[in-house]
Design goal:
The complex is a heterodimer of chains A (about 400) and B (about 160).
Chain A lengths: L6 H4 L2 H4 L7 H8 L5 E2 L11 H12 L12 H15 L9 E4 L1 H13 L5 E6 L4 H8 L3 E6 L10 H4 L7 E6 L12 H13 L3 E5 L25 E6 L12 E4 L2 H14 L5 H13 L1 H25 L11 E2 L10 H12 L1 E2 L1 E2 L11 E4 L4 H16 L3
Parallel strand pairs in A: 1-10, 3-4, 3-5, 5-6, 6-7
Antiparallel strand pairs in A: 2-8, 7-8, 9-12, 11-12
Helix pairs in contact in A: 4-11, 5-11, 6-7, 6-10, 12-14
Chain B lengths: L2 H11 L5 H8 L3 H13 L20 E9 L8 H8 L4 E6 L6 E7 L2 H12 L5 E8 L5 E2 L2 E2 L14
Antiparallel strand pairs in B: 1-3, 1-4, 2-3, 5-6
Helix pairs in contact in B: 2-3
Chain lengths: ~400, ~160
C-alpha cells in the first residue's frame, strides 16, 4: 500500500492560515429541519426584477454568449460612471477607472493582490464581512483587525484605528452600511476617517455593496466623494443586494487608473471577464430598474423597523441599524455565547441566525439577524426568539 | 412619504397585518394607527377590506366576462346616468369609462356562460342608450391585482449564507 499523502503539509501556508467559514455548521443542521425560519441569509428574498431577467433572456436569444472586454462591457461601464456622476458627483473615466468583476468579492481579492507586498498590513474594523481578512492573507498581507464598539453603534473612529498603525500599514478597509451590524457612518464620521487616511497615506478600500440599502434621509455617502479621497479610494459596489442579483455574480470597482490597470491584469489572467449575460442584466438594472430597487428598499425599511421594535421589546440591547438588511442585537444578558445562542435557538425554536463571532472576535456576544425575509416569517421568528430569550433572563 | 400614504401602501397589500406591527413599521403608536385607519375609511380613501381568492381551489366554476359597451351619450349627464343603471346590477363587478372604440368596460361574473349571455341579452343590451355590446369570456386567470395566481416562484436560497 502506498502511504497516504500528507496534503495539509503540501498546501500553501497562506491557505492553511485561513479557516473555512464557521457558519457552515449551522447550515448543515438547519437544512435538515422542516419548519425552520431562517434569519441567517445574507441575500435578498426577492427574485431579480423581471425586466432584468428578461434582458438576459433576450441577450441569449440574440446570441450574446461571447467573452467581453476584460474590463467589462463598455455600455455597462458607461452606466456605472453615469451613476457616480449623477448620485455623488464623482467623475470617473469609463475607459480607465472602472473594472467589472465577478461580484465585489473578486474586486476585493484583486485589490489585495494588486497592492500588498508580503508583510504589508491591512487595517480592518470588526465585526465585518468574512472575506476581508481572508483575501488579505491570501495576498500574503497581514490583516490587522480593529474592534468597533457597540457604544459607538459599531462605527469606527480614527482614535480606535490609530494604535494599530505601523510603518507597514498600507490599506484601510471600510464596509458601510455594514454586514453584519447594519451600522452606517455619518458624513462627519467618514470625514474623520478621510483625514486619518491622508495622515497615514493609506489606500482606502470602501466596500459599498449595501449603499442602496441606506435608510436615512440624506442617503448613502460614497467615500470617494469626500474632499481629496477619490485618488486614494477604491470604491466597490455591485448588483447583488440592491437589485437582488446575488446569483449573477457581478460587481465593479472604481479607482485610480494605474491601480485599476494592475487589477485588470490579474483579472485578465484569472477570470478573463465577468459573464456577458450577467453584464447585460446589470446594464439593464442600472438603466431601467430603479423603481423596482426602490420598492424593495421600502419593504426592507418596514421590516427593519419591525424587527428593531421586536428586539427592543424583548429587552436585548440593540441599536437601530440604518443600513443593509441586518440587525445585530447584544445577547449577553442571556448569559450565552453567540454560538451557544445560535445553536440552542436552532434546536429549541428552529430559528436559524448567524453567531456574531463569525464576523470577528468583537462580534462575540451578538447575533446577526437578516431581515431579508417575508414579514410574516420575521414576526413568527420574533415570537420564537422572545420565548427563547425570556427563559434565560 | 407621509404617514397616511405609507399606511395605505401597507394595507393595500396586507390588510390583515396586526396594528402592532404597522405601528412599529410607521414608528408611531397603535392608537395613532387605529385612528388613521378609521379616518381613511370615513373619508372614503379605504373603500373596503377584501380578500383576494383563488376560487378554483374550492372547485368553483364561476365565469367572468369582459363586456364592452357602446353608448349614445345623453344631454346633461353624458355617460354617467347609463353607467349608474349598469353598475347597480350585482352581476357587474367593475365598470370603467374607456377611451377608444367603445365607451364602458364591464367585468361581469356569473355561475355559467349561459347566465352571463342571458344577462347581457336581457338586461344590458335593452337599456336605453346602449347601442352595442361585445362579450369576451375569460378562460384562465394568470395574475390578479398584482398577484400571480399559479406558478409562484419559490425561495431557492440556502438557509444560511454570510
Amino acid at each position: 500500500m502506498k502511504e497516504q499523502l500528507d496534503w495539509k503539509r503540501r498546501l500553501s501556508p497562506a491557505v492553511n492560515s485561513i479557516q473555512p467559514s464557521s457558519i457552515r455548521r449551522f447550515f448543515d443542521i438547519a437544512s435538515k429541519m422542516e419548519d425552520v425560519i431562517s434569519l441567517g441569509v445574507g441575500e435578498p428574498d426577492f427574485v431579480t426584477p423581471w425586466n432584468i431577467r428578461e434582458s438576459c433572456v433576450y441577450g441569449l436569444e440574440k446570441g450574446y454568449t461571447s467573452y467581453t472586454a476584460n474590463r467589462g462591457l463598455p455600455e455597462l461601464r458607461k452606466e456605472i460612471v453615469n451613476k457616480y456622476k449623477r448620485q455623488y458627483d464623482v467623475t470617473y473615466d469609463w475607459e480607465t477607472d472602472v473594472l467589472v468583476t465577478v461580484g465585489v468579492s473578486e474586486a476585493l481579492d484583486l485589490a489585495m493582490r494588486a497592492l500588498l507586498a508580503p508583510g504589508d498590513e491591512v487595517l480592518i474594523p470588526e465585526p465585518c464581512y468574512v472575506s476581508y481578512q481572508a483575501t488579505a492573507r491570501l495576498a500574503r498581507g497581514v490583516p490587522i483587525t480593529v474592534p468597533a464598539k457597540i457604544e459607538n453603534e459599531f462605527r469606527i473612529t480614527p482614535d480606535e484605528l490609530e494604535p494599530y498603525v505601523t510603518d507597514k500599514t498600507k490599506i484601510l478597509v471600510i464596509g458601510y452600511p455594514n454586514n453584519p451590524t447594519g451600522a452606517i457612518m455619518s458624513r462627519d464620521d467618514l470625514l474623520a476617517i478621510a483625514k486619518f487616511a491622508e495622515k497615514h497615506d493609506l489606500i482606502v478600500i470602501s466596500d459599498e455593496i449595501y449603499s442602496a440599502l441606506t435608510y436615512t434621509e440624506q442617503g448613502p455617502i460614497c467615500f470617494a466623494s469626500l474632499p481629496g479621497m477619490k485618488e486614494r479610494t477604491l470604491v466597490m459596489d455591485g448588483f447583488s443586494k440592491a437589485y437582488a442579483m446575488t446569483g449573477w455574480r457581478v460587481g465593479y470597482v472604481c479607482g485610480n487608473p494605474t491601480l485599476i490597470a494592475a487589477m485588470t491584469k490579474i483579472h485578465q489572467y484569472t477570470m478573463l471577464c465577468a459573464s456577458i449575460m450577467a453584464q447585460m442584466a446589470a446594464t439593464e438594472a442600472l438603466r431601467n430598474a430603479e423603481d423596482s430597487m426602490k420598492a424593495m428598499v421600502k419593504e426592507y425599511n418596514r421590516r427593519r423597523k419591525l424587527i428593531y421594535n421586536g428586539f427592543v421589546k424583548m429587552g436585548l440591547p440593540c441599536f437601530e441599524p440604518k443600513g443593509a438588511f441586518y440587525i445585530f442585537p447584544d445577547i449577553s444578558p442571556t448569559g450565552l455565547t453567540s454560538e451557544e445562542f445560535a445553536e440552542q435557538l436552532l434546536e429549541e425554536e428552529h430559528v436559524a441566525l448567524v453567531p456574531g463571532n463569525a464576523f470577528g472576535a468583537s462580534g462575540e456576544g451578538h447575533i446577526r439577524c437578516s431581515y431579508a425575509t417575508a414579514i410574516d416569517k420575521i414576526s413568527e421568528a420574533l415570537v420564537r426568539i422572545n420565548r427563547f430569550v425570556q427563559k434565560r433572563m | 412619504m407621509d404617514i397616511k400614504r405609507e399606511l395605505v401602501d401597507i394595507l393595500e397589500h396586507d390588510a390583515r397585518r396586526p396594528v402592532s406591527d404597522i405601528a412599529a413599521m410607521l414608528s408611531c403608536t397603535e392608537d395613532e394607527v387605529k385612528k388613521l385607519m378609521k379616518e381613511l375609511v370615513n373619508d372614503g380613501t379605504i373603500l373596503e377590506y377584501q380578500t383576494l381568492i383563488n376560487w378554483e381551489k374550492l372547485g368553483d366554476t364561476r365565469v367572468t366576462a369582459l363586456i364592452e359597451i357602446n353608448l349614445a351619450p345623453q344631454r346633461e349627464v353624458g355617460f354617467d346616468a347609463v353607467a349608474e343603471r349598469i353598475y347597480k346590477f350585482d352581476e357587474v363587478k367593475s365598470v370603467y369609462l374607456m377611451s377608444g372604440s367603445f365607451d364602458l368596460m364591464l367585468v361581469v361574473e356569473g355561475r355559467s356562460l349561459k347566465e352571463i349571455a342571458n344577462f347581457v341579452a336581457t338586461r344590458l343590451s335593452t337599456i336605453e342608450g346602449v347601442t352595442a355590446t361585445s362579450s369576451h369570456f375569460m378562460l384562465k386567470p394568470y395574475k390578479k391585482d398584482g398577484v400571480v395566481i399559479t406558478g409562484k416562484e419559490e425561495d431557492h436560497r440556502l438557509v444560511v449564507t454570510p
